[in-house]
Structures are given as C-alpha cells and as structure tokens.
Amino acid sequence: MKKDNHPRHIQITGRHIRCDTIDDRELLAQAKSIAEDPSAAAGISLANLYAIRDTCQRYALGRAQRASKIAIDTRSPTGPR
C-alpha cells in the first residue's frame, strides 16, 4: 500500500485529513497539540485559538474543536460562553 506523504496531510483525533491549504494544516497541527495536551494552549494567542476552533469546525473535528473551545473559555475575560 502506498503511504500518503502529502504536505497538507495530517492525522488528528484518529482521522486522516487532507487539508485544503498549508495554513489549515498548521492550524490543525496546533489543534492536535491542544487536544493531546491542553496546557499547549498557553502559548497560543486568543485570536489564533479562535482560528483553530473555526478550522476544526470546518473539518468536523469535534474533539479538537471542544479542546480549543475550552482553551478559549479559560482565557476569555468574560468566561465561558
């Protein structure tokens, strides 16, 4: 079987995703790190966390989207939404 080494390919939350853009792949790589270790979100800006959440939603990655939403809620001054 041929291995897929496409530069926009990523495995996240048990799924193989071929991203539409390299930027999406970078955001999903950050989402993967947040899903695996929530403390990884500490070094990511709030605006970038929103972009990560939206990208996860676009690719239907519920687990990673929830992890990014939790990170947003803990860092937002208004608290959870």
Q: How does this structure look, described?
A:
This protein has 81 residues and is mainly alpha-helical. Helix content is 52%, strand content 10%. The protein contains three helices and two strands; from the N terminus they run ββααα. A hairpin with a 2-residue loop joins β1 and β2. The N and C termini lie far apart (46 Å).
Alpha-carbon Rg, integer? 13 Å
Largest sheet: 2 strands, antiparallel
Mean pLDDT: 89
Strand content: 5-15%
Following the backbone from N to C, one meets helices and strands in this order, namely EEHHH
What class do helices, strands and sheet pairing give?
mainly alpha
Overall geometry = elongated
Which spans of ≥5 residues are poorly predicted at pLDDT below 50?
Answer: none
| Total count of strands | 2
Strand neighbour order, sheet with most strands = 1-2
The helix count comes to 3
Oligomer: single chain
Distance between the termini: 46 Å
Q: Helix content range of the residues, please?
A: 40-55%
Briefly characterize the structure.
The protein has 81 residues and is mostly helical. 52% of the residues lie in helices and 10% in strands.
